Amino acid sequence: MSEGDDQVPAGGAPPDEDAAGSAPLPLRWVEELVNTRNVEDDTDEIATADALADWLRARRLLPAGASVTAAAHRRAVRVREGLRALIAANNPEPAAHPAGERQHPDGVDPEALADLAGLAHDLPLVLDVTGRPPRLVPRDPESVDVALARLLAAVAEAVADGTLDRLKACREPGCRWAYYDHSRNRSRAWCSMAVCGNRAKARAFRRRVR
Ligand SMILES: [Zn+2]
């Protein structure tokens, strides 16, 4: 990371000039995990198990000495795409696309969501009542799965405090960048109005003049 990297998301993502910042922690981990893959540029910050280990350690989600197996890496990637599908559902109004371009009416990938549902069975959370407030924690204290379970716990907490609705995946099919919608009426549809919003508008314009 060099100076100014916090201005531009990793992987050369669209400049986020209409963003007022990321999701609050721990939901931000979900946002950042989803954005390890830049759909538009086809780049992946956690393309290898070692890269995932670095990413998790940077967020103190993995102990210093722990490594990431190939199987755990594959699970993490699947959880990421499941979470992308989950938050895509928070961007409800379908974008207008030319026929055939759109795969799913609301940008939600049902297969990724079903996959996440299956994976969640193996990422058990229990209610820890010893702390204040009581919170969901991973049951198994070992491995990368703890980190993945903590991300799912973050989703549960965000449901409880009403912030999950604001974490969305960009409506632009070729983008799907995760962003936190700070707008008063929670109506922000694109990661960046200047890039993806204008792209959608230009498409709508081309259809009208055709
Ligand atoms: Zn976008």
What's the CATH topology label?
Jann2411-like fold
Tell me what the CATH architecture is. Answer: Orthogonal Bundle
CATH class wording: Mainly Alpha
Structural class: mainly alpha
Shape estimate: globular
Instruction: Order the strands across the largest sheet as they lie in space.
Output: 1-2
Rg calculated over all Cα atoms: 18 Å
Distance between the termini: 45 Å
Mean pLDDT: 85
Tell how many strands the DSSP assignment holds.
Answer: 6
Strand percentage: 5-15%
Structural commentary:
This protein has one domain (23-209): Jann2411-like fold (Orthogonal Bundle). Helices cover 40% and strands 9% of the residues. The protein has 6 helices and 6 strands. The protein has helices spanning 27-34, 49-58, 70-88, 110-120, 144-161, 193-209; strands at 37-38, 43-44, 125-128, 135-138, 167-169, 178-180. The strands form 3 sheets. Strands 1-2 form a two-stranded antiparallel sheet. Helix 3 (70-88) crosses helix 4. Bound molecules: zinc ion (ZN). Zinc ion is lined by residues 14, 170, 172, 175, 177, 190-192, 196.
Based on the model shown, name its key terms:
two-stranded antiparallel sheet; Jann2411-like fold; binds zinc ion; about 210 residues; 6 strands; 6 helices; mainly alpha
Please give the structural blueprint:
Elements: H1 27-34, E1 37-38, E2 43-44, H2 49-58, H3 70-88, H4 110-120, E3 125-128, E4 135-138, H5 144-161, E5 167-169, E6 178-180, H6 193-209
Antiparallel strand pairs: 1-2, 3-4, 5-6
Helix pairs in contact: 3-4
